[in-house]
Amino acid sequence: MIRRRSNRSPFDLSRPVAAAALASLTAGIAGAEGTVAPERVDALRNLTWRAFEREFTVERTLMESVRLMRIGKTEIEANPDGIFLGGPALETMRLVGALSRERMADPGSLAHRRGLDTYRGIMASAMGYVWLVSGDGSRRAELAAGRDWVRLNLRAASLGLDLHPVSQALQEFPEMAAMFEEAHARLGVGAGMRLQMLGRVGYGSAVPPSPRWPLETRIRMT
User: Which of 67, 71, 103, 135 makes an SS bond possible with 111, Cβ 3.0 to 4.6 Å?
Assistant: First the structure.
């Protein structure tokens, strides 16, 4: 549990994920499937990148993320609950005025282009994929899938694998509809079934835990 991370760094392209490791990752987890087949991986790299680009270039969906961005150490420490943009390079961009919410929201800005370029490389580094399928799209099925996604994350940590959710193609807004259908078709999800989660797997660099609110600020003892 302590080692478990959602690793958003680029994965090592020189380290393939063995089919046996993928089988161990999904074994015994309801609705869990996966692939490391090169042709399928290439197709899913393309799909997940296009879906991310679509979310990042539709103004209202981009702004959902921009409003949650925590830019620089001061903001991250004050509100450890959003999208964290920290580290020496991003802190420098913030200090010189090259990184701000306004610039991230501007498709013509360096900050916006850099965000897209960064994620293009991240999506292209997937060495395999796992996904969760349920028998329907009910709230009960969604909650069950959430529990199974945690199980996949913990299993990945025990196997030394890295797992990163890339579920933009599963979002339900009009501009994503074609890719939503493509994802279900490409992964063989039949009529009446629902693709609940999609993630890339591989071997990435070590990443620290994400900032979190102290437990006592979230739980009230009575």
Answer: 103
110: CB partners within 8 A, 6+ apart? 98, 103
Residue closest to 198 by CA, chosen among 38, 52, 1, 2 = 52
**HEC string of 5-55?**
CECCCCECCCCCCCHHHHHHHHCCCCCEEEECCHHHHHHHHHHHHHHHHHH
Provide the domain limits for residue 85.
Answer: 19-202
Domain-located, residue 43: yes
Question: Model confidence over 19-78: pLDDT tens digits?
Answer: 999 999 999 998 999 999 999 999 999 999 999 999 999 999 999 999 999 999 999 999
What global pTM score does this model have?
Answer: 0.92
Say how many domains are in the chain: 1
Strands (E) located in the chain: 32-35, 69-71, 83-85, 128-134, 162-165, 194-202
